[in-house]
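User: Here's a structure from my thesis project, written as structure tokens. My advisor, Dr. K., wants to see whether a designed sequence matches the one we expressed. Can you design one independently, without my sequence as a hint?
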């Protein structure tokens, strides 16, 4: 793999990208007869679809709640079996099982797996407007951000598409699962047939870090064999349009502790004499990253591979949302002279998650504190590894006079070194990216564009991190992310929700893939 000489410590962010070829805009297709038939079926069955969703949402789904996690898994298995699919629970000892289902297609030469997870983030019930596992229908949120009024059911069998269902897991990821099931129903009711073999893999531990996923993938590698995986997690584009994502950034975390005196000291008596750990740690942070996002760690950019021409074309064809995002977030400017968000997330990042030292406000006291802590997360791009980043960070600090320890510093270590920092590394994983020039990538873009009636937004990478690298290490197949839920869904937070139009769109998108992908894939010129 050729290393980038373009992306180096001397780069000027976003000016590094070479001029992209002209954006080729294809004619925007109209939804075809297949998509229209799926829509007609959905319009006649909205109440049943929402009922199935709310039944699933009513079961708590925290990964540590083993009894309710199993209730979720059992119900999902039954929902697949209800549709005649072969389904089973892939047990994982004391850890949450995965739900697997399969629908074979006579004559199909390709097999795809649809992935989602059924577990959800922990909740603080008192933070929610209504109980998190009591699915609640509401009207469109108000312009000031307050929740819409509570509503009750459909009117003449139909829902306002702007209505939302509020519950933990509503969008992350139970709505995509229901969309998969409804797509099978719609496909069959419309007299359509799948053109690829279909497999479904629903994880039960994603929000807990997927710490025990790899053994399941390894144990059932033959069962999970496929030509591609579709990761149905995450939100649509901020413009509300559908998007496909061909990669994710990697991630790793770090907590650093800097030592000061062994006890707090009066700042008048000792303030110009005893080193202040707060000042030391801010100096350390400033040595690692500048105010414009450039990472100053020596040789940090050496291994990065620059975006391909196809990736640059796709990134620059995306709707322009930065100005509106800055306005809604009350940002007078964004980093790197207002460089586009999509280009920023194709670069690695160093984020200061938090800093803790002493007290402020009414609790402030005139003392030199005993220690200071800082917490970081690194977002990685292709060809960067957590192991290499860790080595670079430690070498960077050592070169600047820091004595690095991995556990609480001993008195002898503190007396022997002027600057002592304890580094506690969190587990992490590398990034992953599928080439947008692969036949499957081209076929999926073609099918989705035809189904939704416009050119789908196709982006090289998601800004966030998902452990797709672990999937690829075991399965060795392309992984493409196709989210369906609204971008303002409050996932991981209070009042998580799914906008019903996003659920409807997801049903059409998944049904289109099931019925049209086979011929499109075969017809793509490599």
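Assistant: Designed independently from the structure alone:
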């Amino acid at each position: 793999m050729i290393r980038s000489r373009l992306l180096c410590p001397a780069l000027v962010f976003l000016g590094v990208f070479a001029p992209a070829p002209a954006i080729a805009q294809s004619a925007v297709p109209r939804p075809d007869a297949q998509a229209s038939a799926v829509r007609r079926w959905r319009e006649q069955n909205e109440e049943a679809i929402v009922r199935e969703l709310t039944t699933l949402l009513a079961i708590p789904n925290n990964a540590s709640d083993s009894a309710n996690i199993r209730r979720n898994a059992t119900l999902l298995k039954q929902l697949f079996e209800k549709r005649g699919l072969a389904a089973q629970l892939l047990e994982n000892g004391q850890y949450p099982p995965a739900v697997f289902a399969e629908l074979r297609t006579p004559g199909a030469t390709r097999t795809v797996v649809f992935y989602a997870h059924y577990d959800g983030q922990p909740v603080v019930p008192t933070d929610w407007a209504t109980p998190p596992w009591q699915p609640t229908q509401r009207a469109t949120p108000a312009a000031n951000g307050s929740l819409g009024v509570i509503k009750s059911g459909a009117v003449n069998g139909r829902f306002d598409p702007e209505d939302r269902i509020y519950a933990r897991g509503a969008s992350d990821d139970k709505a995509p699962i229901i969309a998969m099931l409804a797509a099978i129903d719609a496909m069959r009711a419309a007299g359509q047939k799948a053109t690829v073999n279909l497999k479904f893999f629903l994880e039960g531990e994603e929000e807990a870090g997927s710490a025990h996923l790899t053994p399941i993938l390894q144990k059932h590698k033959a069962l999970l064999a496929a030509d591609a995986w579709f990761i149905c997690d995450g939100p649509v584009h901020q413009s509300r349009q559908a998007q496909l994502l061909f990669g994710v950034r990697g991630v790793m975390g770090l907590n650093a502790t800097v030592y000061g005196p062994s006890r707090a000291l009066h700042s008048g008596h000792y303030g110009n004499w005893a080193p202040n750990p707060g000042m030391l740690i801010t100096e350390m942070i400033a040595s690692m990253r500048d105010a414009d996002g450039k990472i100053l760690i020596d040789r940090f950019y050496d291994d990065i591979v620059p975006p391909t021409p196809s990736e640059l074309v796709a990134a620059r064809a995306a709707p322009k949302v930065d100005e509106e995002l800055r306005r809604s977030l009350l940002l007078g400017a964004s980093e790197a002279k207002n460089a586009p968000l999509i280009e920023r997330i194709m670069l690695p990042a160093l984020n200061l998650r938090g800093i803790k030292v002493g007290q402020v406000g009414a609790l402030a006291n005139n003392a030199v504190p005993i220690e200071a802590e800082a917490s970081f997360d690194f977002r990685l791009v292709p060809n960067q590894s957590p192991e290499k980043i860790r080595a670079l960070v430690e070498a960077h600090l050592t070169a600047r006079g820091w004595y690095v320890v991995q556990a609480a510093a001993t008195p002898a270590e503190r007396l022997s070194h002027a600057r002592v920092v304890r580094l506690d590394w969190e587990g992490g994983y590398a990034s992953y990216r599928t080439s947008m020039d692969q036949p499957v990538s081209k076929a999926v873009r073609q099918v989705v564009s035809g189904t939704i009636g416009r050119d789908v937004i196709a982006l090289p990478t998601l800004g966030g991190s998902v452990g797709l690298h672990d999937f690829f290490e075991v399965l060795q197949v392309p992984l493409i992310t196709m989210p369906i839920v609204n971008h303002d869904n409050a996932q991981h937070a209070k009042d998580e929700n799914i906008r019903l139009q996003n659920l409807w769109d997801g049903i059409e998108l998944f049904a289109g893939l099931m019925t049209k992908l086979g011929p499109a894939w075969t017809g793509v010129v490599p």
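When you compare it with your expressed construct, this may help: Residues 443 and 520 are 5 Å apart (CA to CA).
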